[in-house]
Amino acid sequence: MSVLDALYNTVHDFDGGAEALAPRIGKRGTSLCHEVRPPAGSNAKAGLVDALKIMEISRDFRTLHAMNAQLGFMALQLPQLDVAHEDTMGHLAHVAKEFSDVLQVVAVGAADRVITDTELSDLHRQWGELMAAGQALLSNFAAKNAEGKRVHPMEVRHAA
């Protein structure tokens, strides 16, 4: 499915269609209809910010998946974990624990060479938790990197 078709379908499949969705993103229904499927010769088109708002409100991610498919990527929804590690090593330990959980599910599932629906579902869940833990580690590491770049107004850094 093309990105434009995905966005069009998301808008029109929304409960109440474009008329119900448009006011929630600050537009008129007819304007939104034209932006997602402009008439021939029209310059109207949906912008990236509007597409993002549409996906957030509708919780319909066909447009995101179409973009990823076109670019050779994939999107994976990360589970919301209650992980509040302040330190990088705590995040790293959590990633290691989640990776261990993935290994356990795969080892148990592959032992009899028959993968059940439950085992597949367990692997999906554990893999998502590993990705979420990895993303938390990346975010923590990036925050620590940014902290290291802040310069106190009275401090002067000299190039080495």
H and E order: HHHHHHH
The whole-angstrom Rg is: 22 Å
Task: Report the count of strand segments.
Answer: 0
End-to-end Cα distance, whole Å, is 53 Å
Helix content: 55-70%
**Sheet of most strands:** none
User: Spans with pLDDT under 50 lasting ≥5 residues?
Assistant: none
Helices, by number, come to: 7
Helix/strand structural class: mainly alpha
Shape summary: flat
| Percent strand | under 5%
Question: What features would you describe in this structure?
Answer:
The chain has 160 residues and is mainly alpha-helical. It has seven helices and no strands. The protein has helices at residues 3-13, 17-21, 29-36, 48-58, 62-71, 88-111, 117-149. The longest helix has 33 residues, at 117-149. It is flat and about 55 Å long.
In brief:
With 160 residues, this protein is mainly α.
